[in-house]
Amino acid sequence: MVSRRAGLLLAVTCLVATAALAQPRRNEFNSTGVPPGDYGKTLRSAEDMALPNNFERDETWLKFPKGRVLGATSALDIDRDGKSVWLVERCAGVGGCTAVKTDPIMKFDANGKLVRSFGAGLLVYPHGMWVDRDGNVWVADTQSNIQRNDGTPNPAAAGARPAGNRVLKFSPAGKLLLQLGTTGQYGADDSRFNQPSDVITAPNGDIFVADGHELTNLPPRIMKFDKTGKFLKAWDLCSKSVVPFDCSHSLAMDSRGRIFVADRGNSLVLVYDQDGKRLAEWKQFGKPSGLYIDKNDVLYAGDSVSSVQEGNAFIRGVHIGSARTGAVTGFIPDVLGNPTPWFPLKGTTGPEGVVADAQGNIFVSQVAPFGQVARYRRTPH
User: Fold this and answer.
1) What distance in Å separates the CA atoms of residue 200 and residue 156, rounded to the nearest whole number?
2) What CATH number is given for 43-378 in this structure?
3) What residue segments make up the domains of the chain, in order of their start?
4) Are the CB atoms for 185 and 150 separated by under 8 Å?
5) pLDDT string in tens for the chain (381-residue length)
6) What is d(CA 141, CA 131) in angstroms, rounded to the nearest whole number?
7) The three-state (H, E, C) secondary structure of the chain, written as one string
8) Residue from 203, 188, 88 nearest 138 by CA
9) Which residues of 226-255 are buried (b: 16+ CB within 10 A; e: fewer)?
């Protein structure tokens, strides 16, 4: 039986919720971190709304080590065996990964069991990951421990050993093989990064780094190095964009060697050749945080930030299509959807990282809420 007091509280809650629904533009939504707007409006195209979802979600696949908490995870990739999954997590958000002694880089087998880990004490804020054709593991560590996001010194790190804001290459067993960037130092020259978001390598060994994440005073760009780490060239990404930041959130490469860039700030997938010539820009893959292209040139784009601020032009989730033609063939909506006044998600939720194994299973990682790497399996016809 519901008590009189509980009944009164329920009635008040219903009245507040009704008022919020009836007045979706009121400014008090800002106090909860939710932007004002018409949450019942959608600018999604009829084609986007008609895309099929032929997958079912499995949140129990990952068998994370007991006694540990899975932190924010934007980066994962498939091992060269086509079935094992690598991921790098942010150490449960406890003062950055330099503050703990656990290994943030982990390999799980096809059943979700941990088989290898390494990297303790080497990373600050891991963001992007790539496993090359030799099985080497690359990690883009996007923040410095000694500088704040505005480039000024971090007083909390006074006297600390510099770490972060670099790209690291490890052997499959965890041996550090190569470092790109000046440890802990932000910059826009040939030897310093403006927060590297992701890394990928070409068949000939050339290295491409998506450089630029949250720093608005330095230009987002793509940096190209040879296989030894020698700088070759760079090109800017945001010079003609409406949103002049977050233009280089993730990278992928198709079978022709074209480079795909997640321009999350402007809701675009950008396509370049390896010398920086822009070949295409696609608007049909949502607001991409993560990109992945499999051996058949199927393109997966994870959208973790779409919202009412763009008129719900897209819904958070994974768009699936062709890297050859740009045609979109499927969409997996995130279980949390877009933020609303009655469900006020903050920041990035849903699939930020996305990959697919040789069997076509899709894996997504989330920055928030913490502690989730889900697998999507194709449903029987």
Assistant:
1) 33
2) 2.120.10.30
3) 43-378
4) no
5) 444 334 433 343 343 333 333 333 333 344 556 667 788 899 999 999 999 999 999 999 999 999 888 999 999 999 999 999 999 999 985 566 887 889 999 999 999 999 999 999 999 999 999 999 999 999 999 999 999 888 889 998 888 899 999 999 999 999 999 999 999 999 999 999 999 999 999 999 999 999 998 888 888 999 999 999 999 999 999 877 888 888 999 999 999 999 999 999 999 999 999 999 999 999 999 999 999 999 999 999 999 999 988 899 999 999 999 999 999 999 999 999 998 888 888 789 999 999 999 999 999 999 988 778 999 999 886
6) 15
7) CCCHHHHHHHHHHHHHHHHHHHCCCCHHHHHHCCCCCCCCCCCCCHHHHCCCCCEEEECCCCECCCCCCCCCCCEEEECCCCCCEEEECCHHHCCCHHHCCCCCEEEECCCCEEEEEECCCCCCCEEEEEECCCCCEEEEEEEECCECCCCCECHHHCCCCCCEEEEEEECCCCCEEEEECCCCCECCCCCCECCEEEEEECCCCCEEEEECCCCCCCCCEEEEECCCCCEEEEEECCCCCCCCCCCCCCEEECCCCCEEEEEHHHCEEEEECCCCCEEEEECCCCCEEEEEECCCCEEEEEECCCCHHHCCCCCCEEEEEECCCCCEEEEEECCCCCCECCECCCCCCCCCEEEECCCCCEEEECCCCCCCEEEEEECCC
8) 88
9) eeeeeeeebebbbeebeeebbbbbbbbbbe
State phi, psi for 52 to the nearest 5 degrees: -75, 155
Extract the tokens encoding 374: 């889900």
- Measure the CA–CA gap between 259 and 251, rounded to whole angstroms: 7
Query: Tokens representing 130?
Result: 């790539």
